[in-house]
Model the fold of this input.
Amino acid sequence: MKKFSFSLEKVLEYSSHLLKKEKETLQKLKAELLALNSQETFLLKKLEHQKNEYIRLCEDGIALPLAGSRLKYIGALRDEIKELKAKIEAKKKQIETQTGVVIEVTKEKTKVEKLKEAKYKLYITNEQKEEEKFIEEFVSHKSALTA
Done:
């Protein structure tokens, strides 16, 4: 019985390697998105705190220059949050694109795996036929010797 050999084994190995690499890239992008979301949450809390602090100071009677600097800082926080939201949206698009890449690589790998499976089934079937033929020849040869 000869050993099963799949001619596209190197292609299958490459597909597996590529899939692993693309999944790692996707995980990295997701981690980056998580970090951006955490940063956004932090800035939103900071903005809320600064707004509440500004309101409290206004109620206590704050000096006009200090009020102006506080409002400027609150505006800067809002701008930073706006920029961060744009980065988050861009990262989400990158993740969506990378997910598509992972899906395509998975499909290609699956095609090669199915081809390998089909070739293996054909190999098994042919091996069984050869064994049956050998047994039949053996039995008929044995019968011819005893007759």
